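Action item from last week, closing it out:
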Amino acid sequence: MSRFSIIVPTHDVPGRLADCLASVLGQSFTDLELIAVVDSPDEGAGQGPAIVAEHVARDPRVRRAQSPPGAGLPGARNTGVAAASGEYLLFLDGDDTLTPGALDALDARIKECEGVDLLLFDHERLHWFEGGQGPALERLWRGAPRGAFTVAEHAALPDPLVPAFSAAYRRAFVAGHGLSFAPGMFTDAVWGVQSALRADRIAVLDRVCVRHLLRRQGARNRRVGVHHLELLDQFDRAMAGAAVLDVPAPVVARLFGRFTHEVLKTASTPARLPSAPLRRRFFRQATRLYRRHRPAGFRPPPGSIGVQHRLLAAGAYEAFCALRGLKSRADKACASVQEVRETLERRLPGRDVYAAALKRPVDENLAVFSAYWGRGYACNPAAIHAKARELAPHLRCVFLVDEEHAHQMPEGVECVVTGSGRYWEVMARAKYTFNNVNFEGRVQKRPGTVHVQTQHGTPLKHMGVDQAAYPAAAAGMGPFGRMLTRTDRWDYNLSANRHSTEVWERAFPSGFEQLEYGYPRNDAYYTSTAEDVRRIRRGLGIPEGRTAVLYAPTHRDYREGFSAQLDLAAFCAALDESYVVLLRAHHFYEGSAGLARAVRAGKLIDVTAHRSTEEICLAADALITDYSSIMFDYANLDRPIVVYADDWDVYRESRGVYFDLPANPPGPVARTLEELVGVFRGDTLHGERSRRLRSAFRERFCAFDDGHAAERVVRRVLLGEEPDAILPPMPLHVRVPAPASP
C-alpha cells in the first residue's frame, strides 16, 4: 500500500496537465500512486486522455480511472477515491501543481502526529498572469494546537472555504464514514466540513504544498449564473449533516456563522446573480434556510454584518438592497455600458451603415472570411472558404480583402474591401466569421454568432500572454487587455497538433473550444498531384530539372526591417548549377528595401509576394528555415528540412520558445554558412539521421493533418454535425503526401 494516493481529474486542462503530473512524479518522496481520472473511455477523445495514456505507459505509479461522462469534478474525485489504495488521499486539480518537497513534508508531519485523520496544509493561489499571491490559509495556523486535536479544540474550524486540495485525508477514515463529494457546485465546502466534524485527530502544517491556478475566466463559484443557488443547497446539506452528529454547540454556531457569511456575500454581489428575480429568489430561499438552521441562542456578529444577518432572518429584501446599495450600483453599471457603446458608435468610421446593420437580424446563411488583415485569399480561411462552397452551397461566403490586394483575388470568389460600407454591413450581420489573425477591436460580436480562430502556424516562439516576459515581443503585440478582449470572442480555435493545443490554452486563456482537426491549408500537401507540382514550379519560374531549395526565415522582434541571417550571395555561389534558391521572407517585409537588396545580391527567385505558401512548399524539394512555423507545415511533405540557427541563443532570450529546437530538430542543424553548405555538398541532407529526425518531428507535429481538415471544420461549424460524427485524423503511416518534383 502506497503512502499517498494522489487523485487528479484531467478534464479540460490539456495545457496544464503535463505540468501537474510532472509536479507529482518529480517529488523526492516516491511512495505514491497517481490516479488520473478521465471522463472519456477513448484515449483519442482529446488531449487529456492522450497525456494520461503517455504517463501510464511511462511510469508504473500512474493509474487511469474513468468517471461517468458529465459527472463533473465531484464525480471524478469520487471515482478516484474508489480506485485508491494508498494510506492517505490527496486531491489535486489538473491545472495545479505540488510544490517541491511537499510529500516529504506531509509524511514527516503525519509521523510527528502519530497518524491523523485529517492534515490541513496551505496552498498558494497563482494568478494566471500576475503570479503567486502568497499563502491562502494563514488564519488556520493562528492559535492551532501543536499536535493532533479535534474540531472543538480549534476556533478556526470548521471552515467551509478550505478546499479539498489543501488537506490530506486518511483513506480508512474516509471509507469508514462514507464520505463523498456531493454533486453540484461548492462541493468542497460540504466535503471539508464533513471531514472536520467527523475527524478524531486533526493536525495542521504551516507550509504551502499546492500552487492553485487562478484562471483568467475566474473561479466558476464567482461567475455570474444560476448555479449560485447551489450554494444554498450545500449550506442546507452541511447544516443538516452537523445536526445528526454529536457536535458541540459552539462548533455548530461557528459553522452556521461562516456559511451564512458566504451566503450574504453572494446575496450582496449582483454580478454573481444575473437578474433581479433571481437575486430575490436567492434571498428568500436563504431566509428559509437561515431560520431552519439557526442554532439556539445564536447571536449575530456586531456591525454591518450583524445587520445583514437580521435582515436575512426577517426576509427584508428591500431593506437589504438599500443597505448594500445594490440597485444604484447596478444602475450605474448599466449606464456605463450604454455610454461606452454610444461613444463607440460616434467614433466608428461607417457608423451609420454599421449601426443600421446591427439592428437587423443576424444572417444565418452569411459567412465571412479574412486572412492576414486582408492581404488576400490565403491560409486556413481560404481553404475553409473553398470547402464551404463545396459542402455548404446554401451559405453566402464572403472574403475580406484590402484595396491593395483586391486585384489578386481568385475568379469567382465574392470579396468585400475592408473599410467599405459593404464591409461594415457583412461584419454586422454575419452568422459565421473566420480569421487567422483578428478583426479590429471596434467590431462587435453579436449574440448567437460564431467566430472561428484558425491560427496561422504551430508555435515555437512564445505567444499571447506568454510574451509578457519578453518586452520586444510584447511591445509589438500591443496591450494585453485588448488582446484578451479579442480572444474572448473566439468560439472555436483550430489546432494542428497536441503541442499547439497545450500552447493555445495557456497563451490565450479564454473560453473557446479547441478543434483538433489539423490546419485546412495543409490539406494541399495530401491532395495535390505530381502535375500540380509541375504546374506550380513552372509558374514560379523554376527551371526544369533543378533542385529547388526554399529559404524561409522568420521575423526577429529584436530588430527592425529585413536582413537575411544567411549570406544569400555566398550560399548561392557555393551551390552547384543543379540548385535554385527560393526566398520566402516573412510577410512583414513584403516590398521592403532590405528584401530587394537581398534578392539582387543573392541571384535567386523571390517568392515572398506569392499568394500561397502551400504552393511554394509543394514546389520546393528541400527547406532551409530558422525558427519559422513553416517547418511544421512543410514536415507533412516528408522532404528534407535544414535548420539554420546561427542566432538561436539571441532569439530564444529575446522572444522565448516552447521547446529547444536545436535539440529536437526536423533535420540537420547548421550554425554557420560553412556548416550549411556542407549539408548540401555531402550525404547529410538525405542521410539516415536526417530521415530519423524528420520522422520523429512529423510524429510530434503533424498528428492531425491528413488532407481532410477543412472538411472537418465545415461539417462541425457550418453544418452543425456532432463531434462524434466528425472523421478522426488518419494515422500518419497511411498518409501519402504529394510527390516532390521528378
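Closing note: Confidence is low (pLDDT under 50) at residues 588-596.
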